[in-house]
Every structure is written in C-alpha cells, then in structure tokens.
Amino acid sequence: MAIQFVLIGGSLVLLFHFFVRARRRPVQKLAMTVVFAAIIFLAIFPDVSTWCAHRVGVGRGVDLVFYLSSLVLLFLCFNLYLGQKALEDRLTIVVRELALQPHRPRPDAPPSGHAEP
C-alpha cells in the first residue's frame, strides 16, 4: 500500500535528520530509534497493532496507536514546557545579577556630560 511507503520513508528521513542535525544524549537517540523502528514495524505488519489492541481491550489497532500517540505528545509538550520554564528561570537570575552589578561605561560611549557634535 502507498501509506506504508509514506510511513517508512518519512520515518527514515526523520530519523536520519534527527541523527545528523540534532545533538542529543545517547538515551534520546535510543528512544527515537525505538519509536521510529516501531512505526516502521507497524507499517509493515499492521495486524500486530490490531492484535495488541484486542489484548488491552481496544477495538482497533489504529485506535490504540492514536491513544498511545496522544500520550506521547502530551508528555513531549509537558517536557518542552518544563524546559522553557527552566530557561526562563535561569534568564531571570542572570538579568537580576546583571542589574545588581555596578555600572561600567561602554568604551565607545562619549564622556558623560558632553554632547556629541
């Protein structure tokens, strides 16, 4: 089916891009490899998701994949929020420290009290 080629090709392109462009920790690389391997596996063998869905009480395999994907996306959004909040907190500390430092004139600034012509 055409969707299998799209899923497999897209997964390989995204995984390649992730490894080439992103500087990540080994654990993150392993997790992404497992996720994309699962996507490729389920694209090749879609009946496996249906079998797993029936084992956990979900009607269709696509529903199970959707539910799990929703959980993963919520986790990622929460993780991004926590990272952004930590950056904001660190920036606040740096700005406070800079604000409390004594004022030093810039080397290229004109002497105080004199207007430039």
Automatic annotation (TrEMBL):
| Record field: transmembrane | 6-22, 29-45, 65-82
Keyword set for this entry?
A: Membrane, Transmembrane, Transmembrane helix
User: Domain of life, per the record?
Assistant: Bacteria
What is the name of the protein in this document? DUF2304 domain-containing protein
Species whose genome carries this gene: Nannocystis exedens
